[in-house]
Amino acid sequence: MLEYINIKNVALIDEAEICFGEGLNIITGETGAGKSMLIDSVNFALGGKADKSFVREGAEKAMVELCFSSENEDVRKFLLENDIPEDENILITRSLNDKGRSVNKINGVSVTVSMLKEISEGLIDIHGQHEHQSLINSDRQRQILDKFCGENFASVFRTFSEKYSRLLKVEDQLENLQSADMEQRLDFIGFQINEIESANLKEKEDEILSDRKKILQNAKKLTNSFGETIEILYDGRENVSDKLEKALSLLEDIKNIDSSLTESYEAVERASIEISETMYSLKDYFRGLDLNPDELYAVDERLNQIFVLKRKYGKTIDDIFEKLNALKKEKEEIENSRENINCLKNEQEKLIKETESLADEISDMRIKTAKNLEGKIEKELKSLEMKNAVFKIKVDRKENITSKGRDDIEFLISPNLGETEKPLAKIASGGEISRVMLALKNVLSSEDDIDTFIFDEIDTGVSGRTAQKVAEKMNSISGNKQVLCITHLPQIAAMADKHFLIEKEVEGEKTLTRVKDLDRKGSVNELARLMGGAEITEVIMNSAEEVKSQAENIKKSKA
What are the tens digits of pLDDT across the range 292-326? Predict the structure, then answer.
C-alpha cells in the first residue's frame, strides 16, 4: 500500500506530506484547490510526463517521494533483477529541475523512467475521469481472466510456456541449419581452416618479427654507433678499463692512509668490473649481429602474411587461433547437421502437437471461467443501478499460437437495453464507465496483486441513489485494498476511513495549497460544505452528521 507521499515545490504546493492509511482514503476540496495536482504528483513520481510548469514558480526543482509497502512477487522480482536493495519499504523519488531534467530513484538507486513505469504496474492502479487504466488493456484483461482460472490452469499454463519456449528454440535451430547451402558452407570453412593451418603461426610471432624488422631497418645506424662506442671505450693505446685499473691501484695505496677513501675505492672497483664485462658483452653482440639485407625482405613477407590473416580472422594471433577452433567446431556441427535436422524435425512435430493440445485446454478453461466471471460482474453492475447492463468476456480462439496461448481476450459491455456490446474503451458516458470500473474492481480486487487503487473523481455523472451505491461499492473494495479517492459526493466522502481536505491559502503575496488530515468533526464539517455550498446552516450540519453516522453504521454492518 501507499504509506505516504511527500511533495515539494509542485505547482501551488510548496511542501506537503500525507500519511495514508488502510481502507478508504478520501480527498475533498473546492474546485481548483489542487486535488488533481495530488494525482498528477503520483503519476509524475511513477514515470508520467511533466514539463517545467510542474515546478513551483521561483523554485529550482520539484520533488515527489512515494513510500510503498508491498508483498507483490513481481515487484520483488523487479528489485532483484535490477540490483535494487530490497528494504522493508519501497521508496520512489523523482525530481524535476527548472531546466526540465528529471532524476529518478528507487530505494536510492538511479533508474530510468521506463523502470519507474514497470514497477508501478505492480504497486498502484490509477483510474482517472478521462484515462484508460490497466483494465482497458487487452493483455491486462487476459491476465485478470487467467487469475480467475485457478491453480490447475496455472499449472497447465506453466507447462504450455515451457513447451512453447522449447518449440521456438527448436524452430530457430532448424532455420539456422536449413537457411544456407550446407555443402557450400562446408567447402568455405575447409578453405579457411587450411589457410590458417598452412600459415603455421606461432604465439607472439608477429611481435618477435616486428622487433627483428626494426633491427634490420636500422642496420647502418647500429654499425656506426657501435663503432663510435668502441673508439670511446678503446682510446688509443690505453682503454677505459686499463685507466680504471690504474686509478684503482692508486686509490688502494692511499685508502690505507685515509680510511674515508674506502667507499670511493669500492665504487671505482665496481665500475671497473662493470666496464670490463660490458666491453666483452658488446664484442659478443657485434660478433653475433647478423644484418643480412635479404632477411629484411623475408621478415616483411611473413608480417604481410600475418597481417592478411589478422584482417580476416582477428586482431591478434590468439584471436586467429580462437577463430580456427570455432571453424573446426562449426565444421563438425555441419557434418553432423543432417542427423541433427532429422532429430529436430521430429522434436518440432511433437512439440507442435503438445502446444496445440495445451493451448486448446487453456482456451476451454478461459471460456468456462469467462462465463462465471460475466455473471459476477453483471450482478455488481445491477447493484450499481445499471439494471439492464450486459457484460461479456470475449474469448476469440485464433489459428496461430503465441506465448499467451491462442486466444484474444476482450471485455465488452452493453450499458443499456438494446445496445450492442462494445469494448470498455468505447464507453462514452463518464457515469457508466465509472460504475463499470467499480464493478470490475469489486469483483477482481481479491484476485488482483495490486494493493492500492486511486479513483480520481469517479463520481462523474453520478448522483442520488446511484451515488449511495457507488459509495457502498467503494467501501467494499477498501475492505481488502487500499483506496484513494478524490470525490465531490458527500455519500462517498462519508465512508472515509481517513479524510483529507485540500485547501488554498494566501500567505503574503503567494497562493499555496495545503493538505489537512481531518478528524471526525472536521470530516462532518467538510460533508456539510459538500452538501450545502456557500451557506452552511444548522439543518445542513445535522444532515451531514446523519450522513456520516449512516455511513459508519454501513461500515460496521459489513465489517
Answer: 777 888 888 889 999 999 999 988 999 999 999 99
CB-count exposure of residue 411 (10 Å: 0-12, 13-18, 19+): buried
**C-alpha cell recorded at residue 549:** 453516522
Place of cell 511513477: 46
Contact 449, 470 (CB under 8 A): no
Are the C-beta atoms of 300 and 269 separated by less than 8 Å? no
Q: Residue 19: exposed, middle, or buried by beta-carbon count in 10 A (0-12, 13-18, 19+)?
A: middle
d(CA 174, CA 245): 84
* Helix, coil or strand: residue 289: coil
Distance of CA 406 to the CA centre of its chain: 28
Amino acid at 21: G
Task: List, in order of start, the domains of the chain with CATH numbers.
Answer: 1-123+450-559 (3.40.50.300)
Sheet strands side by side (includes 61-68): 13-19, 2-10, 61-68, 90-97, 102-106, 109-110
Please list the helix, strand and coil fractions of the chain in percent, rounded to the nearest 5, in that order: 55, 20, 25
319 touches 245 (CB < 8 A): no
Q: Would the pLDDT of 349 be above 60?
A: yes
Q: Which of 238, 244, 235, 249 shows the shortest CA–CA distance to 268?
A: 244
What DSSP line would sit under 112-142, residue for residue? -HHHHHHHHTTTEEEEETT---GGGSHHHHH
Q: What pLDDT is stored for residue 430 in this prediction?
A: 60
Mean pLDDT of 61-83: 91
Task: Decide: 66 and 482 in contact? Cβ < 8 Å.
Answer: no
Cα end-to-end span (Å), the chain? 20
Contact status, residue 246 vs residue 252, Cβ threshold 8 Å: no
Judge if pTM exceeds 0.90. no
**Alpha carbon of residue 389 to chain centroid:** 41
Q: How far apart are CA 372 and CA 481, in angstroms?
A: 23
